[in-house]
TrEMBL record:
Keyword match Lipid metabolism: no
Pathway listed: Alkaloid degradation; nicotine degradation
Entries under CDD domains matching the protein: fer2
Protein name: (2Fe-2S)-binding domain protein
Amino acid sequence: MPSGSRKRRRIPGPSRRTFIGGTGAAVAGAVIAPEFAAAEPAEAHELVDVRLTVNGRPQHLRVDPRATLLDTLRERLDLTGTKKGCDRGQCGACTVHVDGRRVVACLTLTAMLDGQQITTIEGLAREGELHPMQQAFIDHDGFQCGFCTPGQIMSAVALVDEGHAGTDDAIREYMSGNVCRCSAYPGIRAAIKDAKKEMR
């Protein structure tokens, strides 16, 4: 047989294609598996006791230590006025008050709030009467679709209480963490300035 036509003898075992395919699957499994493990629900013994006062009402909850305040409010307490927007602390739609301070509930762990006072948009009205800020948002058309409005109002109330509602520039600066994709900002600023008079 001529040397140029000599055939190579096949060595028993997996082909290169089979080997590479199997290795890729193993690597993918190793990367994906920890994510699935992290997503598994906590065992009963891992739950933590948390006592909160939410909108003036005491609440005793057993929660997963990984649960956010946003999910606890919406899924455990049925307070769905607090909205889930970006879920990354960037849009402000989930703003609530914790001991009078505004926080984004999507980045706040419920387990860290034991003994604290939580106020949501549902807790602003008193005896059926809207909070001055809620009424001002209506009067000045401070919203369009309304999705961001609960967070805008909660942040606006805190802004006035903090003393940052003196000028349009200050309002823009201290409300910059709340995004309105409908661009109702002129109405929002007008509402804040109007409500400030009633909140003194």
